[in-house]
Design goal:
This is Chorismate mutase. It comes from Streptomyces tricolor. This protein is 73% helix and 0% strand. The protein contains 3 helices and no strands. The longest helix is centred in the middle third of the chain and has 39 residues. The chain has one domain: Chorismate Mutase Domain, subunit A. The protein has 93 residues and is mainly α.
Length: 93
């Protein structure tokens, strides 16, 4: 009888599953970043239009609606996320 090399684990081991999931996360992050950039551009249009018509750049009651929407959907961390989005979108004009 000849000795054979031990079988190696297939590439579908946990490492491969993790690598695939990380690729999906990276792709999702790319989409999220693109959507945030699009949101910032749309917010700039709203701000410019509001200022041009004699209004204020920031509409606080609208920001409160956004904060509540994110909080309701994602809990307390959603509020922090919404604050970050609002900060990214303010004063870019």
């Amino acid at each position: 009888m000849t000795a054979t090399a031990p079988d190696t684990a297939p590439a579908t081991a946990p490492e491969a599953i993790i690598a695939d999931a990380r690729e999906r996360i990276d792709a999702l992050d790319d989409r999220i970043i693109g959507l945030i950039q699009e949101r910032m551009a749309v917010s700039a249009v709203v701000q410019q239009t509001r200022i041009a018509s004699g209004g204020r750049r920031v509409h606080l009651s609208r920001e409160m609606e956004i904060l509540a929407r994110y909080r309701d959907a994602l809990g307390k961390p959603g509020t922090a996320l919404a604050m970050t989005l609002l900060e990214l979108s303010r004063g870019r004009i």
